[in-house]
Design goal:
With 401 residues, the protein is of the alpha+beta class. The protein has helices at 3-18, 24-30, 35-41, 45-66, 74-86, 89-97, 104-130, 139-158, 167-179, 184-191, 193-196, 199-211, 272-276, 294-307, 311-329, 365-376, 383-389, 397-400, and strands at 226-227, 230-231, 235-238, 241-253, 256-265, 282-288, 339-345, 348-353, 356-363. The protein has a 7-stranded antiparallel beta sheet with strand order 3-4-5-6-7-8-9. Strands 1-2 form a two-stranded antiparallel sheet.
Length: 401
């Protein structure tokens, strides 16, 4: 390809990305050439769009292949991919705006590119399965967010607001800081700065807070571990840490009180994201208030698991779901007063019933998160139960009215 034609394609791609459907005469002016020269290279506007779109798809496919996104840890693979995309910013800009062009040839090119786009989405899903990326965001949304950041970075580079050498770092840091799963220490620092600090720093911070009369951001922990006449231990040891009751909740079905639950966490946590977002130990203890079958309890939990997750993500935890169901079915008949305990430590979910271990631990951070989301997610087993487990006050009906 001639140098002139190559330069022209880059310029046209950038112009059409910001001004789709620009007529040929204005397009020629925008890229600094005559209409006759533009017509000589591209006989029609559709020919321009089709050729540049095909080139943009080719470059993006090459970037995906060169990044080897199916291999190794997810974060380095994302960095390699972003480096590759940023190497041809004009074509990437055009590809992101190509949906504004409605030619039969462009639709066919975009359709052919879809499997490659799905590979990138699968990269984010792999990060979720490995426990390095958040699962409360869908893989599709993370892919779209990355594309949006790349687009804005490319625009900023064109406008001279961002140096080309800095762009990949800016995109990677902003993307991963938003999608990376927080460690337990990071979650602790967010919830309770004094607890997260250690040694002299912790003592100094606590003293400063006390001296100015400030309360820590987390609400006071639950004082009494009793609900509906059922008592739960105030504190338990799990995974080498001391956990206390975060909240107590009641599950009602058609005004029938069926069971109560206690959620244990290392520190008070008042949001689902805080409870789910780090890999620290958690305990869910369930005590039956009626002679309901364990199958009934399990169905409610598993239905909530499925309501709160992308179907594709569910496929990856299906073996864990089956192992969980098998362990519950091994319990057999149940009666009022029986207690089921779910201990979530590292990447394992351990079940016990009336103090006896049931089955083998169910392995996987994704399943662990799915189980917590069944109780605390957007479509939980019971919304009021979820609020209670987070230690939140009932909604103010008067304020809502």
């Amino acid at each position: 390809m001639s140098t002139v034609r190559e330069r022209l394609m880059h310029e046209i791609a950038a112009v059409l990305a910001g001004q789709p459907r620009l007529p040929m005469e204005q397009l020629a002016q925008a890229v600094g050439t005559s209409r006759a020269t533009l017509h000589r290279m591209f006989p029609t506007r559709e020919a321009i769009v089709s050729e540049i779109l095909a080139r943009a798809v080719e470059e993006c496919q090459a970037a995906i292949e060169a990044a080897a996104i199916d291999e190794g840890p997810v974060e380095p693979a994302l960095r390699r991919l972003i480096d590759g995309f940023m190497a041809n910013t004009e074509f990437f800009l055009f590809l992101r705006s190509a949906g504004n062009e409605h030619f039969e040839s462009s639709d066919a090119i975009l359709e052919a590119f879809e499997p490659h786009q799905q590979r990138v989405i699968a990269l984010f899903r792999r990060g979720q399965e490995a426990g390095s990326l958040r699962v409360d965001l869908s893989a599709q949304w993370m892919h779209d967010a990355m594309a949006g950041l790349l687009y804005e970075a490319a625009c900023a580079m064109r406008a001279g607001r961002l140096a080309a050498a800095d762009a990949p770092d800016f995109v990677v840091s902003l993307l991963l800081d938003g999608t990376r799963r927080r460690t337990q220490r990071e979650a602790a620092a967010r919830a309770d700065p004094a607890r997260a600090a250690s040694g002299p720093a912790r003592a100094l911070l606590a003293a400063i807070l006390a001296s100015v009369g400030l309360a820590l951001s987390a609400p006071d922990p639950v004082q009494a571990a009793e609900i509906e006449g059922v008592e739960f231990a105030d504190r338990v040891e799990l995974g080498g840490q001391s956990l206390s009751v975060n909240g107590l909740g009641l599950r009602e079905v058609y005004i029938v009180k069926t069971w109560v639950a206690a959620l244990y966490t290392p520190m008070p946590m008042r949001s689902a994201q805080a409870v789910i977002g780090d890999p620290g130990p958690r305990r869910l203890a369930i005590s039956l208030l009626a002679d309901v079958s364990i199958d009934h309890v399990a169905r409610g939990i598993l239905d909530a698991v499925r309501r709160n997750h992308d179907p594709l993500l569910l496929v990856s935890i299906e073996p864990a779901i089956e192992a969980f169901v098998a362990a519950l079915r091994a319990i057999g008949p149940t009666q009022k007063g029986d207690r089921l305990v779910l201990d979530l430590v590292d990447d394992q979910t351990r079940l016990s019933f009336n103090g006896l271990t049931v089955g083998e631990p169910v392995t996987g951070l994704l399943f662990r998160d799915a189980l917590l989301r069944a109780f605390l997610g957007k479509a939980p087993v019971d919304a009021e139960l979820g609020r209670q487990l987070l230690g939140l006050a009932p909604p103010d009906d008067g304020a809502r009215r």
